[in-house]
Amino acid sequence: MSSPEPSVMRDITYAEGMARGLTEVLERDDRVRLMGQYFFGLTEHRSKTVEIRKRFGDRIWDPPIAETGYVGTGIGAAISGLRPIVDVATASFIFQAWSQVVNEAANVHYMTGGQTSVPMVIHVNHGIRGRGAAQHSHSPQAALWNTPGIKIMLPSSPRDVRGLIHTAVADDNPVFWADHVKLFDVTGPVPDEVEAIPFGVADIKREGTDVTIVATSYMVVRSLEAAVVLAGHGISAEVVDPRTIVPLDRDAVLRSVAKTGRLVVVDEGHRSAGVAAEIAALVAEEVFDSLRAPIRRVAALDVPIPFSPPLEAFVEPTLAKIVAAAQDVMDRRRP
Amino acid sequence: MAIPRLPSHRLMAQLRTLLRIRRFEEALIELARTHDVGHFHVYVGQEVTGVAALDLLEDGDVGYTTHRNHGHLIARGVDPAAMLAEILGRATGTNRGKGGTLHLASAEHGFPTTSSSVGGPIPIAVGSAFAFRELGNRRVSVALFGDGALEEGAWHESVNIAALRQLPVIFLVENNSLEALGQKANEYPSSTLASARLADLARPFGLPVAVVDGTDSRAVHIAMRRAVRRARALEGPSFIEAQTVRWPGSRPLWPQLLTGPTDLAMAWDAGRIGDEYRAWHERQDGVLRFARELLAAGATTREQILSIDEAAKEEMRSAVRFALESPYPEPREALEHVFA
Predict the structure, then answer these.
(1) What architecture does CATH give domain A203-330?
(2) What would the pLDDT profile of A58-83 be if each residue is shown by its tens digit?
(3) Which residues of A fall within a CB distance of 8 Å from B160?
(4) How close is the nearest chain B Cα to the Cα of A162, in Å?
(5) Do B127 and A75 touch (CB under 8 A)?
(6) Among A16, A143, B13, B104, which is least packed by CB within 10 angstroms?
């Protein structure tokens, strides 16, 4: 289905890419059910759910406020023949369903010795959305990366989200799909024809030669902005977007670092034991000899996300912090 | 008389299954004295509930059971040899050695996955029922769990969803803590519910409830038959509490044969019953009760019972041999089945 040279590309927003992906999988696979309806959070894009509901109302279920109950319902429905896309809305709420995700869905295929599969998609809106404070700002992907058995997709563009939705629904495993609400208005080209973007294939969002910036989700957008600033300072940054961290396109990351010799990892999760930490460790283990400077992580500081705007900005990975980290690794050049 | 009104061959098949479960658990307890099987839980004392209830399921119906799963799987035809092999971590086990006693599963026998997280499987059972309703295939999902799971939030969320959607799911609670009801919350970890009547936790959601003696096979049969009919007709979920008494051998963390291997002759020779566990042997052991009732109904003979029992014991001896002779999985198989 994937086409490297799409005929016609049109610019749409990320939210439109999501809506298109969801609509297409509902059209093409009658096993798909939507459980929950806050795919677009409380943003103005939520009206897109209304349009989907007009066409597929009998395949959308609005569950009670019961994350354990409805995520578990999604697991059982997947085991018994449906392809549910379960929306947990704000990522922080997934902790209410943590046992179902981590101790049930992730384990079923393994602990049954391969007898049973859980082909479900769990959707959340993750990240520091602005004034979300500590209980509406989580990015739980690092914790789920530490949970074997869950695939994790973190799209950053309209084309990626639409294409990855197709692959997620076709996958026979639990897939955790996290969108950042700040992505919803990002625009980009999307092919007219249906396209499935494979898991485990990174996308080089910008080519460069001096420093590799590996970024996930909305941090890809911010890193691309940083790359423009860095170019003004004569630094050529390559922005690598893994798109899925489980599976991770290790080769693409390692290849880029082997080329540039420098790595900055940008992720909105917390710094310790985070997504950035894992990618940094991978590079240190595999291509240490290629590194011409220490690796830098740009991640949320290790505090709960605060409410007040200056506090929040102090804690989150900002454009200025990404630029500073890239400049730092350039200054620390080894011969 | 408390046996179900069923053809004699069905009753005899139930007796055979009851004895196979009992002898399986006894064989396992013996085996565990010399082999590391981890922390395990036996179904002794609850056999009548599982056998009478699950006998009403059909191919395609599913059950989600718990850490106390052995009896449920045997009741639906899973091979005890493969179960014991799994419990010993062998490659020939039901789960290829990836699950052990806590997770025995057999998808082809209607046990897609078995969770040892208390309350964890309840929403998943509801989910299968959700799919069955959407797919219109008239199948039934059964959540099998103990009274302890009713303390979990998962129960309350799940029953609400099942009731809202009128899902074809049956909540079959096996309360094996009957004699523990008066205990304080901080003693033995059972029955620490503020509600002493478990069914009160289902009534507000509009579920029909049945509270039955779990060793009364007819009562279990009637309650389950009603629940299965209701589910197949897509009329909604049902709640059944089957009450049993915790088997004396189940008191310690690791089961022990405090009452010895079951002496079936106690079913017709009261003189064999000693004083120490008199209540258990006279009234609470459902297997002995079922045998007594079959004899009283003239449905079988002592000789026939002993012959079925001997076959069950021989089957379990053979299952133990199979398990012990089975190879362990190759260590690298640990890397398989993370993803489908």
Answers:
(1) 3-Layer(aba) Sandwich (3.40)
(2) 999 999 999 999 999 999 999 999 99
(3) 64, 66, 69
(4) 23
(5) yes
(6) B13
What is the rounded CA–CA span in Å between residue A303 and residue A324? 21
pLDDT tens digits for B193-248? Answer: 788 788 999 999 999 999 999 999 999 999 999 999 999 999 999 999 999 988 98
Contacts of A67 in chain B (CB under 8 A): 157
Q: Is A238 a known active-site residue?
A: no
Does B257 map to a domain?
yes
Other CB atoms within a 10 A radius of the CB of residue B256 amount to 13
B247 falls within a domain: yes
pLDDT tens, position by position, B285-296? 999 999 999 999
Taking the CA of residue B335 and the nearest CA in chain A, the distance in Å comes to 9
Among A64, A77, A111, the residue with its CB nearest the CB of B127 is A77
- A316 and A322 Cβ atoms separated by less than 8 Å: no
B336 to chain A: closest CA residue = A110
Distance CA B174, CA B241 (A): 6
pTM for this entry: 0.96
**Contact present, A199 and A247 (Cβ < 8 Å):** yes
| Domain count within chain B | 1
Taking alpha carbons only, the member of A19, A76, A26 closest to residue A50 is A19
> C-alpha dihedral over B15, B20, B25, B28, to 10 degrees?
170
Q: Where are chain A's structural domains? A: 9-191, 203-330
For B339, which of A74, A109, A112 is closest by C-beta distance?
A109
Q: How confident is the model at residue A42 (pLDDT cuts 50, 70, 90)?
A: confident
Q: What is the ipTM of this complex?
A: 0.95
| Structure tokens given for B69 | 């799963």
Which chain A residues have a beta carbon less than 8 Å from that of B128? 76-77, 79-80
Q: How many CB atoms lie within 10 A of CB A207?
A: 13
| pLDDT tens-digit readout, B120-157 | 999 999 999 999 999 999 999 999 999 989 999 999 99
Query: Which chain A residues are within 8 Å of B120, Cβ to Cβ?
Result: 72, 99-100, 103-104
CB A175 within 8 A of CB A121: yes
B67's CB contacts (< 8 A; 6+ apart) are B41, B101, B102, B116
Domain contains B211: yes
Q: Which domain holds residue B328?
A: 8-182+196-334
B64/A80 Cβ within 8 A: no
The minimal CB distance from B128 to the residues A76, A104, A113 is found for: A76
CA of A239 vs chain B CAs: smallest distance (Å)? 29
B123 vs A69: CB contact, 8 Å cut-off? yes
Question: B313 in a domain, yes or no?
Answer: yes
How far apart are the two ends of chain B, measured CA to CA in Å?
50
Pair type for strands A203-206 and A237-241: antiparallel
Q: Can you give the CATH number for the domain in which B215 is found?
A: 3.40.50.970
Q: Residue A112 CB: number of other CB atoms within 10 A?
A: 26
B16 class by beta-carbon count within 10 Å (0-12 exposed, 13-18 middle, 19+ buried): middle
The answer to whether A9-191 and A203-330 have equal CATH topology is: yes
- Does the domain spanning A9-191 belong to CATH 3.40.50.970? yes
Lowest mean pLDDT segment, chosen from A289-303, B39-53, B195-209: B195-209
Residue in chain B lying closest to A64 (CA): B161
Please give the sequence-ordered ranges of beta strands (E in DSSP) within B9-155, or none if there are none.
Answer: 62-64, 141-146
Mutate to test the interface with B, among A33, A61, A68 (most CBs of B within 10 A): A68
